[in-house]
Amino acid sequence: MKNLSYLLFTIVFLWASNTASKEEEPFFEFEIIADEDGLPNAYQAFIKSPVCEKDKCYEIEIIMQWDLIGRFQEYDTLTGQGLTKLDHIPFTDEDYFRLERLLKDPHSPIGDYKKEELILDTRKSDIDGFTGATIRAINDIVVGGGVYSCYTLWQLANQKFTDSITKMTIDLFDKKLINKMVNQQDLAVNYFIINNLKPNDFLTYRDEILQMIASNKGYFVKKAIEKMPKEIFRDSITQEYFAKRLNSYNYFTQVAFLKQLNAIRLTSSLKKTLLGQKEERNTLRSNLIKNLIQ
Amino acid sequence: MDFKYRLTLFLLIISLLTLWGQTKSVLVEAESFNDKGGWFIDQQSMDIMGSPYLIAHGMGTPVKEANTTVQFPAKGNYYVYVRTRNWTAPWSDIAAGKFRIKIEGQTLSKTFGQDEKDWHWSLGGKVKIKTNQVEISLLDLTGFNGRVDAIYFTKNKNDLPPNQLETLDEFRIKKLGLNQNPKSSKFDFVVIGGGMAGTCAALSAARLGLKVALIQNRPILGGNNSSEVRVHLGARINLEPYPALGNLVNEIGPQRGGNAQPKAYYEDQKKLDAVLNESNISLFLNHHANEVVMQGNTIQKVLAENLETGEKLIFEAPIFADCTGDGTIGYLAGAEYLMGRESKSVFNEPTAPEVADNLTMGISVQWFSEKTSQAVAFPDIEWALPLDDEKSYTITRGDWNWETGMGKDMIREAEFIRDYGLLVVFSNWSYVKNHHAEKEKFANEKLQWVAYIGGKRESRRLVGDYILTENDLTQQNFLPDGTAPTSWSIDLHYPDLKNQKDFKGEAFRSYAVFLPIYPYPIPFRCLYSKNIDNLMMAGRDISVSHVALGTIRLMRTGGMMGEVIGMAAAVCKSKNTNPRGLYQNHFSLLEELMSKGVGNPNLPKIQNYNLGKTLMETTD
Do B260 and A129 touch (CB under 8 A)? Predict the structure, then answer.
């Protein structure tokens, strides 16, 4: 595999009129980009896609790049062949900046609309009505005169290939790749891992899972505990790990952990930790502890 | 005649005269008219001015007349007094809401609604009543919110009815012959307020087997999300740590989002059907709860008044829920409450002001117009606020940021605040249609809808065993009694400074300041009163600081709170305890119920609008 840093993108964005008469599926070629250690690092695709506006279609050629969990990273255009708007007016620097910002927002409101809804309605408001042809909800985030191009590119960047990309990464899971991903210390990547591991994989990657748990708070720890198979908690190393940290977890994470311990033999240090957590009030946590240390 | 005999005779004559005086009068409450025509019942200020009243909300077109037939005890000449007010008097010498009264086919010469600014009895002259069945009609003259509370017929010109709240109530009971021993019914759980929070509270408890009364002072359910106010639902449901909470909101909430949209967007019937489908719920629409009977710190009974007839009903239950928004039941019961802004020193909140004040967020009177195929006129109103091209707004829809009353008393001045909302909408629209340089662009625009029920954001916050603050939210101080997660940003509104300057300190436009948060489970101790033993709350009147109110006030969050207190009521019943007892001794049962939820988990998640910019952990 090639090293990403050595890649030169030659990306083409053609606005060739009359190249297509109807909206067709995009043509694309995918490539895995590797890092210096030869591990998968990103995906890139050369894409040819039509952009249709009323009865006219144009073809875009572009190279896009995503990370391992399908998040759009960047695009580029072919040297000397910049993007243009209606009437072949070239994109300004501000237009490029705006397009990049749009494509990098996977939750952009543009995703809430169907293509035919981008220009419609007559009701106006100073909040979320319309100013001109493009609906105001997206007017400020698209390139003026290029709403359909923006829409098509956003779909390509954030929806069209996401499932394929994530499936490819899951197929590539191994100890080295999981380790690399865990060390990215990225919460979304962490969630991606725990959401896509099979129950037995949690045993295989136990050290990596515990490493993720150690570097996170919020609900991630709770979710990770809930995803982990019960077998992991039989292990004294796992129990010791949690015995040391349990008091620092929030109430809901503690409850999730205690639920996993049901009918499991506990180490003495974990029992001691639990004894210290006993409380007068009748709560799910106190009931679970009571049952565990009886 | 000896003195004793003469005294007895004198007293007898006095009594007879008094009796005659009483029977020779008739009180007609406007809200009890058989046919209300185009007039609406407005109950929003009845706790302050004494009664529901009829309002002619025609948006500039006089509304259809209201008619009723009244039984008179005797024929003859009667003086006519009408309880009304001139609602534009605080801003203009010219009255907006004028109306006349027709009695037995004869229209009184007096035009009402143009005299005093406060509610008063206006003498309308003398009429000759020739039959015992008398037809009375209310004739709206302007379509601009004329209002009438009651009409009093008396043979004695000096028999001016009382105007003070206390005496007025007695007068009404006496003259209307209202039952002073109202019917009493017992329930497991009585919910007051039929907004999203109250509706969900009632549904939740009913699905868990409780006999529930749901009391709502409007003819429909939904509160701010009803077609009367038209605010869309906001914030997120189905969040950790209780992802099943919110399925109920998903079940009954509208599919489409948007403020100030056509009526159908708000799906009133869907909410109503959900309640009607629960055999355990007794629904009391058009009933306003305005009295409580206490035993120590426990509410024994809540009394609610039928808005049309004035008849009261008594509701008895071991547990009550205040989902009124205004904390009305808590206030009547003597619950501790907060109002306005706490100073920074009270809760050590970074966003709080250095000095406490009475600033609250305001009421929205939203509106919109629609384009028609031909030009539509709108009256060039003389009582409008002074506007010019620069101060007016050339728009066709008024969203949440048409907001009035910030800094006023949201309870005592509610009518004034709503009226100012109406005044500015009509003033602006009149200017844009008749005077603006771009008026031609608006020629075909027709004012389609203006709210007359104000969308209120803030008033009393009842104090619980815990007061949620900004620091809890921003520091993610999760507490073991966390329940429904609040997820909307801390979203606080302030008067728009330019607008405030343009309109002499009385802003009607606002801006919002957002502080995004991670979802935070609201502690159960915020959902019951600190000093009223059997009172829970859901919605915007829970136990929070002013700053924390900025996030919890969203309606999906309120609906989830309702779901939780409905569950809590079920636990209270099964363990024969009160909310504090539940917190101390049975909280695990509530946790189990929250894990399951009471809504249908299998319905598609259709409410993908107005979720807010929550700081979310990416989970997939």
Answer: no
